[in-house]
Amino acid sequence: MKNKLDYKIYYKRNLPHIQPENAILFITYRLAFSLLKEIIINLLEKRKSFDKKLIKINPIERKKLENTYNKILFKIEDEFLDKYSEEPLWLKKKEIAGIVIDSLLYNHQKLYDLHFSLIMPNHVHTVLKPLKNKENNYYSIAKIMKEHKSFSAIESNKILKRSGQFWHHESYDHFIRDDEEYYRIKNYVMNNPVKAGLVERYEDWNDYIVDVSQSSAL
């Protein structure tokens, strides 16, 4: 029986996850809390509409369109998260943000090459490139996120003196196709705290940023 953490080019939970070989991935994940009812309804209606369209399309084109639709759903949720100022906002605490950054850096050059990451009060944007294991298989998104989320959740809950779920189970991921898209995503990520009205310049959010990217992206 195949381990669910083994590398797969494609798998689907609530969202589709596509990890081509040698891909650089843009991953966004958030704290565990319920989205507002109107946001959930909006997302569900859009998903239902997308699924109806996808049924009529051949499998190859379907995967391409799923990725496009995934980006639309991501934008709706991400814009909501940027503006959402209700608890939990645990990641705004520098001690908690430090745990998340340390966890990301711990597996840098072990499970993946980390490029950059930015922590918002209730969600995280990360760009990384999975590496190969001793069996010459790529580490999967599922394994990378499980290790990162498990460690950072345990350590963060200790600081917060709480128990229970810390991260939302699902995450959004998108494989980056070229340098142009890479730098467009980096610009989007770095300007997230500015767009959300948290700071005037992204440099003022420096305690919540880790950037170990190279001069050449792909």
What would you note in describing this structure?
- The protein is α+β, with helices and mostly antiparallel strands.
- The chain has a single domain, classed as 2-Layer Sandwich (Alpha-Beta Plaits).
- 43% of the residues lie in helices and 17% in strands.
- It has helices at 37-55, 59-83, 94-106, 141-160, 179-190, 192-195; strands at residues 10-12, 16-18, 24-30, 112-119, 123-130, 172-176, 209-211.
- Strands 6-3-5-4-7 form a five-stranded antiparallel beta sheet, sandwiched between helices. It has a two-stranded antiparallel ribbon with strand order 1-2.
- The longest helix is centred in the first third of the chain and has 25 residues, at 59-83.
Secondary-structure topology with pairs:
Layout: E1 10-12, E2 16-18, E3 24-30, H1 37-55, H2 59-83, H3 94-106, E4 112-119, E5 123-130, H4 141-160, E6 172-176, H5 179-190, H6 192-195, E7 209-211
Antiparallel strand pairs: 1-2, 3-5, 3-6, 4-5, 4-7
Q: Can you tag this structure with a few keywords?
A:
two-stranded antiparallel sheet, alpha+beta, Alpha-Beta Plaits, five-stranded antiparallel β-sheet, 6 helices
At a glance:
The chain has helices at residues 37-55, 59-83, 94-106, 141-160, 179-190, 192-195, and strands spanning 10-12, 16-18, 24-30, 112-119, 123-130, 172-176, 209-211. By secondary structure, the chain is of the alpha+beta class. It has one domain (14-211): Transposase IS200-like (Alpha-Beta Plaits, 2-Layer Sandwich), CATH 3.30.70.1290.
